[in-house]
Design brief:
The chain is of the alpha/beta class and 271 residues long. It contains ten helices and twelve strands. A hairpin with a 5-residue loop joins strand 5 and strand 6. It is globular.
């Protein structure tokens, strides 16, 4: 059986290390997992060309929205988030679309005391998953800090559908209102801008926890700045492992071995 991660860029992905470690821990010696560089307009053709040995696909940027054109069915969570990060092969050869980013975020920050208030940085596909995760965690008041006001409006509308009060602020002003829980979905360029806002504000972040979903080139500029101002930092590796464990279960029918996956990803990330 075969599975893999698709996206662009994808060479940095730690998913192969995670899934391969899971297969080993579960004794699934017949399973293999690879990676392939695929852009959005190539996805349908690539998926159509996969034979019956392919059981599952992990999707990263820029494929989480393009996947709606490939999936025969889509879970309610993925449809609500407007993002599919997992395709699972059905017995009839078609593909089911799932979103495990939401559960990955929930598991990564479920220990955080947030008093109902949080901030989301960014307005892309992962920010919508973050919005759903915050709703599930009982957050009722959210600031969405983003440069793209139109995309931020979509995140606000999603939160409103889940009875969460939300407002948009420019990314450069996000640190003016320090909240107990912050989830950053920003790429590296946005991370630098958000870090500058932290330094400019002079705010104290003691008592705040930041989950930065980026795990490459760690720590990000934002994680470094927030830590220097007193915040607790949760690495994107935590979210990565938890969402991958959910993918393993969807693809293989066996619960993802979180301990083995954490050990593998920490080893791969340090090498």
């Amino acid at each position: 059986m075969r599975a893999g991660v698709l996206g662009s860029p994808v060479s940095h992905s730690l998913s192969p290390a995670l899934h391969t470690a899971a297969y080993a821990a579960l004794g699934l010696s017949e399973w293999t997992y690879g990676r392939r560089e695929v852009v959005a307009d190539e996805l349908a053709g690539v998926v159509a060309g996969l034979d019956e040995t392919w059981r599952g696909l992990s999707l990263t940027m820029p494929l989480k929205e393009a996947a709606f054109e490939v999936a025969a069915t889509v879970t309610a969570v993925a449809r609500d988030a407007g993002a599919i990060n997992t395709l699972v092969r059905r017995s009839d050869g078609q593909w089911d679309g799932h979103n495990t980013d939401v559960v990955g975020i929930v598991r990564a920050v479920e220990h955080v005391e947030h008093d109902g208030r949080a901030t989301i940085l960014g307005s892309g596909a992962t920010s919508r998953s973050a919005a759903l995760a915050l709703s599930e965690l009982g957050v009722h008041d959210v600031v969405v800090a983003a440069r793209n006001a139109s995309a931020a409006a979509d995140v606000l509308a999603l939160l409103a559908r889940h009875n969460v009060r939300a407002v948009h602020v420019p990314l450069e002003r996000w640190a003016d209102d320090t909240r107990p829980l912050v989830i950053s979905t920003l790429p590296q360029a946005g991370s630098a801008a958000a870090a500058s806002a932290v330094d400019a504000s002079g705010a104290a972040f003691a008592g705040s926890t930041l989950l930065d979903v980026v795990y490459a080139d760690w720590p990000t500029p934002l994680a470094r700045a927030a830590r220097d101002h007193g915040a607790e930092i949760v690495s994107g590796l935590d979210m990565l492992v938890y969402q991958a464990a959910a993918q393993v279960e969807l693809m293989t029918g066996r619960p993802g071995p979180v301990g083995a996956m954490f050990a593998a990803v920490l080893e791969a990330d340090s090498s």
